[in-house]
Each structure stands twice: as C-alpha cells, then as structure tokens.
Amino acid sequence: MTQYDQARFSLDVTDSDDVELIEMFLGELPKRMEMLSNAAESGDFSHLNRLAHQLKGAAPGFGFDPIGEAAASLELRLKTSNLDMVELEHIREEFDLLMAECNSYMRFIKN
Question: In the chain, pLDDT over 90 holds for what percent of residues?
C-alpha cells in the first residue's frame, strides 16, 4: 500500500475507507488532466469551463481541497473573461496552477 502524507490530504489516510476514496480519485486524475489539457490546447473554453466546474465539485469530496480551489479559480476566470489576449494569459496562468496542483499528487499514483 502507498504511504500517504496526512498533511497533503483532508481525508484520514489511516482510515481504509478514506484511502479507498483517495485512490479512486487519484486513479481518475491522469484522465481528467488529459481532458483539461486537450480542451485548453484546442481553445474549447466552454468545455474547459465544464471540466473545471466538475473538478471544483469533485476534488474536495475526495479530500483534494487544493485541486478544488485551483479548479474554482480557473472556472471563475473563464466565466468572467472576455477572452482578449490579456485575459487569455490569465486563463493560462490559472490553468497552469491547476495542472501544477494536480501534478503535485501524481507521485502518489502507483506505477
């Protein structure tokens, strides 16, 4: 079993039920990241917004509050942006922060 650092998770890493939730979320994380990347690369901001919204809601329930907060920031930026060049840079910054937060948990995924 993978050793989880309790400081990184809001769920109890000593509780087998919570660990099961952590592992379920982590198992889906690479696919979610790929979908986010594809939407961003293709400029499909509507789809990117939906994906960020879903992640904002799901991540905290599985104990991934930092990912949920980063997804919420991206979603808010997408909702309030007029998509001009300056705003696109801010969207990219929010997207990069979300991806960095996701990547910080990737080390917990079993190879």
Answer: 66
Domain boundaries, the chain: 14-106
The architecture (CATH level 2) of 14-106 comes to Up-down Bundle (1.20)
- Cβ(101)–Cβ(77) below 8 Å: no
Among candidate residues 15, 10, 3, the one with its CA nearest the CA of residue 61: 10
Q: Report helix, strand or coil for 10.
A: coil
The pTM of this model reads: 0.87
Question: In the predicted model, what is the mean pLDDT of the chain?
Answer: 89
What distance in Å separates the CA atoms of residue 30 and residue 18, rounded to the nearest whole number? 20
